[in-house]
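Protocol step 4 of 5: obtain the predicted structure for the target chain.
Materials: sequence only (see below). No template structures provided, no constraints applied. The aim of this step is simply to have a reference model before the mutagenesis design in step 5. Sequence pasted as it appears in the construct record:
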Amino acid sequence: MMKVDSIGASSALWSMIKKQIKPAVVMFLLLTILVGIVYPLVVTGIAQVIFPVQANGDLIVHDGNVAGSSLIGQPFSSPDYFWGRLSATSPVPYDAEASGGSNYGPQNPALITEVQTRTDALHAVDPDNTQPIPVDLVTSSGSGLDPDISPAAAYYQVPRIARVRNLSENDVSALVAANTANPVLGIFGEPAVNVLSLNLALDDLSAHKIPVNPAAMPRSQPANTLFGITVNDWVFLILLGVILALLLVPMGEFMFRVYTGKQTFLSPVIMPVEGWILRTCGAGSEEEMDWKQFAAAMMIFSVIGIAFVFFIQEIQQFLPLNPVGAGPVPWDLSLNTAVSFATNTNWQFYVPETTVSYLTQMVGLAVQNFMSAAVGMAVLVAFIYGFSRRSTLTIGNFWVLLVRGIWILLPISFVIALVLVSQGTPQTFGGPVTVPLLNPTNDSNGNLVTTQSISLGPAASQIAIKMLGTNGGGFFNANSAHPYENPTWLSNLIEIIAILLIPVSLCFMFGKMIGSVKKGLAILVAMTLLFVPLLGLGIWSEMGGNPAFTPLGIDQAPSHLQAGGNMEGKEVRFGIVPSAAFSVITTVTSCGAVNSMHDSFMPLGGLVQIFDIQLGEIVYGGVGSGLYCMLVFIIIAMFIAGLMVGRTPELYGKKIEPYEMKLSTIHILIPIFLILIGTAIAVSIAPGTAAVFNPGPHGFSEILYAFSSVSQNNGSAFAGLSSNLFYNLATTVCMFVGRYAIAIITLALAGAFVTKKIVPASEGTLQDHRPLFIIWVVFTILIIGALSFLPALSLGPVVEFLIQVGRGVIHV
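Step 4 output (structure tokens):
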């Protein structure tokens, strides 16, 4: 009898899978054409017409010739030129085909040596200058291509330039002032000096081609601060919060109407297309699914995406739109990349500029940015149906919800892409541009390098969805630290808003769908209570700078001429607070994009990033996945609360029984096991430790961060950790299990709740929107997070911080 039942179950499973194969294949092809070909082509066409200069790399034309890009720095080492930031790119500084930071941890002896060497070099060419050296002049940028230095760094070099060029200091100071980009309206952005433009003007001044009005060097004045944060940075943080608050309701309402099939301003366009797509796929829009059918459709669709991305990487050398001649990607790296993008992780163990073609980026990686985000939101909506529906078996139609997710992502991505192009992000199918170096340099082998090759591509269309879909994978290696991916203070603000927009607004949508907006907003308040202290600690840790630099005579104090703080791995145009805020926001969500190098953050800054991820990225979280993981934490919190008062716990009118609690417990434990076991294995074997870049506890943090990031589908990294077969395969397993096991359990929970009746609240029910509920949820999350990960964190960032305290370089 058991054998017959087993055969029957297998037959039913195969029948269910077979039914979803055709819709999955056809849906994948149609959506790939839409978001992988039509979308970038339209963005490119419009960008080339409206913003032709920015779309093609913002090139500088000087004396009738292309002299470089205003957004990409060049190396300068001659005493008669202003020097820029240190660059960690290899084999030549400012290699625009291999962007990236040094990834030195704050206590790495190599970092101290590098800073000391730079300090000695500056003193050697200007021995009479006894002023403290501005910190950005002795630290490496996050991209290795930072085009700017602070005005403080420029003015520091004025005496040397004036002496070597036989110019007056007042003339050179006036030139610096003329080439300083001050904050917009005096409050938005950091003051910055474009080094290439300044040096081109310097040559013109020396050749008497341009006049200047002599001006004395300004005196450095301490910045106006409140709680250690400058006024400009407070304006940035407040503006971010205000914009999100203003967008919360309209965006939440829009998503609610799209998912429930109600009329929106886009309905005349999208509804006919949606109907045609569903009919072509053979996926009936009226046909509902139970949780098993929903999970089967999701998995088949996702596996097809993984196979496609893997395959296109292996044959990209035979396909068009490959101007750099990228060859086949090694199989283990290709598999890692395919799973990474399909799972919304976007973990990148490769250099995009040279490893993948434009076509692979467009129809492979960017398509998965759309698909994985839409899948996450579809699972969330199914979970919400589990609470909002009663005494039924179905939780929606995966194909309908998938397509409707695309209707949310596509138009907003389109707008964001064009805004990014307007700021300088490229959107072109042209290949790399070769420009002359104003000051030729030598590579690591001593060979003279006279040109710079600048990578371009259809970047803006992909960057828009990587932010909006909380995917995070960069078109360029340095991600949003790259001057092309994130050119200005405004692009930085737009990218942060894009990361948070959907996760924040989903809370409002959730409330609308269960019939009580205040219950959705209660969840948002709980998330924010967790977020604000983490944000504060992350910013504070970076504002104080690196104490190891103090004996070297480095000026790290914020002033009206420099941001100050820990500038290793950060870009001058962002400074400290926008960089630290970005790092916290990208780790509390599942985005993983970075505008600075996390490996170079101070110990407590790194602690915040890792702990953000380990909490399950439920503080706003990824699109869809963040809220459904938060709801599982709420289920556990309500179950515990029910036990404490001796009654059957309930949530949103549905009773929480042992079956739901077992699923919720497994849901929480899976990423914990993946993180801790993965880290334990890595530190125990040679391939695991051989890939570590930084010594001591910071090296352990690199490993812990990696397994936290992939298991929770974040994708950011302490990027000093290098790739090998072990990490490629181990992180692939963690990404796959961490995404799909969690999603399937979430669907199983939806299937369990949807069958239950809605029970009216009674006098003993814990009200799921009151302050007590909010505080209890926050407390439960912190206890689970602390008990699970504090021992591991103590071996990494905590002990690293204590070492600094013990050495007396940090006083507490």
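Step 4 remarks: The longest helix spans residues 2-50. The chain has a mean pLDDT of 93.
Proceed to step 5.
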